[in-house]
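To illustrate the input format used throughout this study, we show a single complete record. The first block contains the structure-token representation of the backbone; no residue identities are included at this stage. The design step must infer an amino acid for every position from geometry alone.
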């Protein structure tokens, strides 16, 4: 049934939705949906264990301190 919707069916659904809920309500829902998707993608990019990342930052370990090139000597 859903395989045969096509462009005219989608346009009809959009028109009925706008008539029932109003343009402002639909745009607000779309904005909230976009915000939710952005937060979801950001959550996927963050590391799984934030405690280990915080401990690395508090110890001050990064590429410059581990390699010993802070004073400019090679």
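Output of the design step:
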């Amino acid at each position: 049934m859903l395989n045969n919707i096509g462009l005219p069916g989608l346009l009809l659904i959009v028109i009925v939705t706008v008539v029932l809920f109003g343009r402002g309500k639909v745009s607000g829902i779309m904005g909230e949906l976009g915000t939710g998707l952005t937060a979801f993608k950001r959550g996927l990019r963050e590391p799984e264990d934030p405690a280990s990342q915080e401990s690395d930052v508090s110890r001050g370990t990064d590429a410059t301190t581990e390699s010993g090139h802070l004073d400019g000597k090679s």
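Structural context for interpreting the output: The two ends are 70 Å apart (CA to CA). The chain is about 75% helix and 0% strand.
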